[in-house]
Amino acid sequence: KELFHGTRTTDPERIYKGEEGFDMRFSDPGMWGTGCYFAVNASYSHDYSYRLTDGSFQMFMAKVLTGDSVNIPSNKSLRMPPMKLTNSSMCGETRYDSVNGMTNCSRVYITYKNDNAYPFYLITYKVRNSVGI
Description:
The chain is mainly β. The protein contains two helices and eight strands, in the order βαβαββββββ. The longest helix is centred in the N-terminal third of the chain and has 5 residues, at 42-46. The two termini are 32 Å apart.
């Protein structure tokens, strides 16, 4: 999936020049625990965008491997996706690849492995102020 990601105070250069790319060690726990959060809507990620000294903002458009993602309610204690429910004990225990949910009018996907996302584009933009807003 192509999803958006803001880095808040982490310089995006640390992601696109770093060995790990999106690295959960820089993540603060969120609504679905400690993971890398990616949004369908750029407007959601704007609230987490990196701010440049000239007043511009930056966020990534990332290629994210969401795999078999499960929609679950918020759970701040998550550190990995939940186990899949299987009908047979012969299948072994497996986990979902990611989780997702709705917040602030956007679907967000959370991955818990650093190598599940690639910083495809770094978007730099400015926001125009509108009268009455």
